[in-house]
Amino acid sequence: MTMREKYFVLFMEGLRKAGKRMNDPHYFQLPVASKERGRKVFRERVYCYELYHQLRIILGDSFPHKLHGEVDKAGHEFIPGAKKPDFIVHDPGNMENNLVVIEVKHIRTGMSELKDDLETLRLFLSEGYYRAILLVYGDDEQGLPNTIQSEVVKASKRCGDRILLVWHRGWRREPEVLY
Questions:
Q1: Which phi-psi region, left, alpha or beta, contains residue 80 (left: φ > 0; alpha: ψ -120 to 50)?
Q2: What is the mean pLDDT of residues 7-34?
């Protein structure tokens, strides 16, 4: 097992633990003031900020890569465009040891947003990131839409099966790797 494989396995263990520690349903669907009582909405930033917090606690300062959220890559010498993935786990200032790039979407995400995020993941993989994750959060009565799964599978196959589909169904549950 290479060092990057080892660190990726450690990161994935941390991701599962962090997801399970998200113990408030408000991080998945935020209640909003509305004439419609009990209305809740998906807010990706709310989910991501709590996941970041839990990951930082679990990974700590001794993890050999840094976790950063929404790093704007506009003007980057190696990564074209103004991509801003939800999370990167990397070695700042070095393109040789970057571990993982993550895009987060809620379960009811539209297809164009999903395809844009998969393109971002593909781009980062082409620039040396070891793995990519599309993390879908939330649950629906029908489960995870087949369209999400099929788009991730297609995108991953084009990238040497290096994009994982991870589903975080709900609070106090571990995210699970589906592909």
A1: beta
A2: 94
How many domains, in total, are found in the chain?
A: 1
Boundaries of domain holding 165: 3-177
Paired sense of beta strands 131-137 and 163-168, if any: parallel
pTM, entire model: 0.92
Nearest alpha carbon to residue 178 among 118, 136, 125, 123? 136
Tokens representing 111 are: 């297809």
Q: Which of 52, 82, 50, 47 has the alpha carbon at shortest distance from 68?
A: 52
Whole-number Å distance between alpha carbons of 70 and 6: 25
Mean pLDDT of 110-136: 95
Of 122, 151, 125, the closest CA to residue 136 belongs to 151
